[in-house]
From TrEMBL:
GO molecular function terms attached to this record: 2-C-methyl-D-erythritol 2,4-cyclodiphosphate synthase activity; metal ion binding
Annotated site residue numbers, Transition state stabilizer: 34, 133
Entry cofactors: a divalent metal cation
Gene name of the encoded protein: ispF
Cofactor comment text: Binds 1 divalent metal cation per subunit.
Binding residue positions for 4-CDP-2-C-methyl-D-erythritol 2-phosphate: 8-10, 34-35, 56-58, 142
Designated name of the protein: 2-C-methyl-D-erythritol 2,4-cyclodiphosphate synthase
A Pfam entry, by short name: YgbB
GO biological process: isopentenyl diphosphate biosynthetic process, methylerythritol 4-phosphate pathway; terpenoid biosynthetic process
């Protein structure tokens, strides 16, 4: 059994659509990012890579590489999961917490879990996504951005 942790934080300020967990969320601002800015998937990628001791998202997808400009993060996740599977790992479970004052995430969580279940080919019951606010504290409390934490447990086949 191996456990990995991932974290990501992006600030608002882009005209890009707001995409979290592969779900388009109607909101007045998007997240500033080189890729599509899907911080939930980015944190999961880092958690999976951490559990497999294979580095981090920037190792595989550097932000200065134009090839990844505005790329759909679900493509990145599938790519990383293919590499980790080649190391003979299965996912036991993934646990995610989104930290945002606004927009509210609860209406979209089922769809996020469904996307991850499909992309990682695991049961939806093995994926937990929760959301919380920062109680109006700090940059998230001021609605300047969104953060996400993820934990992944891998089991060697």
């Amino acid at each position: 059994m191996r456990i990995g942790y991932g974290f990501d934080l992006h600030s608002f300020g882009s005209k890009k659509p707001l995409i979290i967990g592969g779900v388009l969320i109607p909101y007045k601002k998007g997240l500033i990012a080189h890729s599509d800015g899907d911080l939930l998937i980015h944190s999961i990628i880092d958690a999976l890579l951490g559990a497999a001791a294979m580095g981090d998202i920037g190792t595989f997808f550097p932000s200065d590489n134009k090839m990844y400009k505005n790329i759909n993060s679900r493509i990145l996740l599938k790519n990383i999961w293919t590499k980790i599977r080649l190391e003979n790992y299965n996912i036991s479970n993934i646990d995610v917490t989104i930290i945002a004052e606004d927009p509210k995430m609860s209406p979209y969580i089922f769809f996020m879990r469904s996307n991850l279940s499909l992309d990682l080919n695991i049961k939806i019951d093995n994926i937990s996504i929760k959301s919380t606010s920062s109680k109006k504290i700090g940059c998230i409390g001021r609605k300047e951005g969104i953060a996400c934490q993820a934990i992944a447990m891998l089991i060697k086949k």
